[in-house]
Structure formats: C-alpha cells, structure tokens
Design a protein that fits this description.
Elements: E1 2-7, H1 18-33, E2 39-44, H2 45-48, H3 52-58, E3 65-69, H4 75-88, E4 93-97, H5 100-103, E5 115-117, H6 122-133, E6 143-145, H7 172-183, E7 189-193, E8 195-196, H8 207-211, E9 216-217, H9 220-230, E10 236-240, H10 248-259, E11 266-271, H11 278-283, E12 289-297, E13 305-306, E14 309-310, H12 311-323, E15 327-334, H13 341-353, E16 357-362, H14 374-379, H15 401-408, H16 412-415
Parallel strand pairs: 1-2, 1-3, 3-4, 4-5, 7-10, 10-11, 11-12, 12-15, 15-16
Antiparallel strand pairs: 5-6, 8-9, 13-14
This protein binds iron/sulfur cluster (SF4).
The site of iron/sulfur cluster has 10 residues, from helix 8.
Length: about 450
C-alpha cells in the first residue's frame, strides 16, 4: 500500500517549526513505515515552497491514501486539494488529521474526504484508517468515516507503541541546510515526544482533546536509547510534551540518566508553571538542560497573576532557572480575554527584567468555530486563523491594534515606548525590590 503524507503550503503558520515535523508528522510517518507492506512518502510542501502545480503533480503518482496534516488555516486548501486529487485519482482515499479536525471537524464532512481524526492517539487513528481502507471494519473509535461519526471516542495506545520520527523519510538534509543558514552557530536540534496528555484542559488548546487528560510517558530507557541513536547529528534535542514537570520523578530521573551519557546533546522542554518547583529545577542542574519553556499566556498588572499561576511563583521559578543557567522561555497570548495594553507592557517589562525569552502569539479562540455551520465557516477567511498572527476583535477589544501587531512581532521597544508607558502608580511596589539576575 502506498501512502503520501502531505502538509500543504497554502497558509503556513511557521515555515520551519522543526519540532512539529519531527513529532506530529515525523512520528506518524515513522509508525506507518514500521508496518509491513506500507510504503510512505512525506512531501514537506512548506519547506519546499511548493506550488499547487507541484503538489498536484504528486497526485499523478499512484497512491492508495493521501494523509493531510492540517491546521485550521490550512483547512480550505486541504479541501481544495482533496477535490483535485479525486478528479485525478478517484480511488485514492483521503485522511485528514492535525489541529483542524479537533476544532472544525464539520468542515471536513465532504465526499472527497473519507476519514477524519476526531480523538485518540494518531497511531490508533491510522490503524483504524488502514482497517477501514481494507474493509475489515465499518467503523472505528475516534474516526469519522465516510461522513459518519464513530460510536466511541478514540483509543490511547501504550507509550511503547508510539511512533519515532521517521529519520529516513523526513528531508533531514534540507532541514539541516535551512537550520544552519538560519541559526548559524547553533547545533542542529531534533525533537521527539516524551509524554502526552494534559489535565489543565485550557479551552483554547487541542492537547486534551487529542491526547486526553492523563499524563502518559515513554520510559526513560527508550528515551535515552533514542537520544543515543541520534546524537551523532543532533547536538540539541527538544523533548516534546505538554508538561515535563507533570511527573516530577520522571523529570529528575531523566536528568540523571542524560547527565551520565557520554557526549549527550543539550536538551530543552516545556513545563506547566504551576507544576514547576524550585527543588525540581535544582534537580536538573548539570544535566545539559539549556531552556525550559512555559505557557504564561498573560498577566494582570493589578491582580499580579495570570491563568497559569501567581507572579510570586513565577519569579521564584525564574530565579531558580537563572541560578541554574537555564534560559526561561515564556509563551504569551496577545489579545487574551480581558488583557489590557498596560498588562502587556507590564508583563513584557517584568519578563525582560529576568532575561526571559518571550514567544508571543495571538490569542486563538478556535473552539468558537466548533459550533458554526460549514456555510458559516466558509464565509470566514480561515486562512487568517493561524495561531501566530490571529487577531480576535472580541477578545482583544481592550488592546490597541498597533500594540497587538508590534507585540507579536516582538518589537519590544515600541511596546514599551514612552507613548505607552504604564503610569507609575500602577506598577506594584514589590517589583522594585525583586531579585534581579546577575548582569
Ligand atoms: S496547560 Fe498547555 S498543554 Fe495543557 S491544556 Fe493548557 S495550553 Fe494545553
């Protein structure tokens, strides 16, 4: 059976977000490639800068199944391409998965799309697609098949059976070339999933819907042996997880294991702020961890807290990270409901005081799309619904639009400029006596 894996180039949110290619795409390609009788080709249309002419050309090669990795902003393009595919090769089936199918599954109920991933692990979903394709079953948990919803939610598979990035199918040489040109002196970084599932259940996030709310992890032995296999070409590795600190014992045992490896790559990961403690941060000292990211989303100047924790806890964690030579990285949502211009300036100013790497995107209320009809969705320009730049008039009504765009473009001088200065009396006095990092 021949499968073509495609991420369309219509409205790319990130040109080279390598970690998604290694994990959400690469691991599923890897899972399929490990099956007998399956031949998979991955075409990275974004990296190739491929035109539709080139993508459509791929449809003339005889394939049994095309899998589209789809975000909301790609959805119209995927529907269009699926239609063209059916004109060229009516018997080729189409499977759609990716964030879009959690937010707008109704958009994909069309005759040109056979299978839509609704819930459960992606490995289980492709198992189901293959069974449906071979007519071994008529329905499968977590999959919409031929426009019919499944009778039950998708299945989780054991972490022992999760796919690993398909190093032979991913265009690693092209990634290396692009990465080297962009990142100059930095060693090449690969990524793979270490855990799935998050119980925080933020409304705007697809993770709990995709992965469930229970923390599930690969074993440390498996993780270390994968790092051993790839360290010859990757000087850095990103551990993909909703929350590395969700299992503190695993996190410190992993740190110990990687610290004892010969020529170990440096590593980084993501944690939920409220699950980080200063003891946990101290426990990973000397393990090669160079960065920990966390979703802060927003902070309120007046209440000194955000949806992901209190300011005092944030400051303690920042201080511990900097003491241990770990760079803190904060993910912010500009235009978060209730956020005001002064909150943004306050938050940026505070994070910069602690040398935090700031990663802003727009607030993404994609969950609001779930209740719209296909006609209503078609009347929206879904290409604008990309996570990086989406401006939501409703949530961001207290934010001036210029500040919104300057903030997501990380133009901090503009954001903090005197014209936008926060009035002195609104800055909490304790900020002046907070610990400040050396230099
Ligand atoms: S904490 Fe992070 S991963 Fe978990 S639901 Fe919220 S945004 Fe998603």
């Amino acid at each position: 059976m021949k499968i073509l894996f495609l991420s369309p180039s219509g409205a790319p949110e990130f040109k080279l977000n390598l970690f998604r290619r290694f994990t959400e795409i690469g691991e599923l390609v890897g899972y399929l490639s490990s099956m007998e009788g399956i031949e998979v080709e991955y075409f990275d249309a974004v990296l190739e800068g491929a035109t539709n002419f080139e993508i459509i050309g791929k449809f003339c090669e005889k394939v049994d199944l095309v899998i589209f990795y789809t975000r909301v902003s790609d959805a119209p393009e995927v529907v269009y391409l699926a239609g063209v595919l059916k004109s060229i090769s009516p018997k080729t089936e189409v499977f759609v998965y990716g964030d879009a199918t959690f937010f707008i599954p109704q958009f994909f109920v069309r005759s040109e799309i056979e299978y839509v991933h609704l819930s459960g692990d992606p490995e289980s979903a492709v198992d189901g697609v293959l069974k449906l394709h071979r007519k071994e079953v008529l329905q499968y948990p977590g999959l919409m098949a031929f426009g019919k919803p499944p009778k039950s939610s998708g299945l989780n598979v054991s972490a022992d059976n999760w796919g690993w990035p398909a190093l032979s199918q991913l265009p690693i040489d092209a990634y290396l070339k692009y990465y080297t040109e962009k990142k100059k002196d930095k060693p090449f970084e690969t990524s793979f999933t270490v855990s799935r599932g998050c119980g925080t259940n933020c409304t705007y996030c697809p993770v709990p819907k995709k992965e469930g709310v229970k923390d599930r992890r690969r074993s440390i032995d498996q993780v270390i042996s994968w790092i051993e296999r790839t360290k010859h070409f990757a000087g850095m590795v990103k551990l993909h997880t909703p929350d590395i600190a969700g299992d503190p014992g695993w996190m410190s045992d992993f740190s110990e294991a990687i610290a004892s490896m010969k020529s170990a790559p440096q590593w980084r990961s993501i944690a939920i702020l409220n699950n980080l403690t200063t003891d946990l941060i101290d426990s990973i000292k000397g393990s090669g961890c160079w960065m920990i990211g966390f979703g802060l989303e927003t902070m309120s100047l007046n209440r000194k807290l955000g949806p992901k924790g209190e300011q005092s806890h944030l400051i303690r964690c920042l201080k511990a990270m900097l003491d241990n030579k770990i760079i803190p990285e904060a993910f912010l949502m500009i235009g978060y409901p209730g956020q005001k211009d002064k909150d943004i300036r306050y938050m940026i100013s505070l994070l910069r005081d602690y040398n935090v790497v700031i990663r802003p995107t727009g607030f993404t209320p994609f969950y609001r799309l779930r209740n719209l009809s296909v006609t209503e969705l078609e009347s929206l320009d879904l290409r604008r619904w990309d996570k990086r730049t989406f401006y939501d008039e409703k949530s961001a009504r207290h934010i001036s639009k210029d500040l919104f765009y300057r903030a997501i473009l990380r133009d901090w001088d503009y954001v903090l400029s005197s014209a936008h200065q926060v009035e002195d009396q609104e800055i909490p006095t304790e900020r002046e006596v907070l610990w400040m990092p050396a230099n």
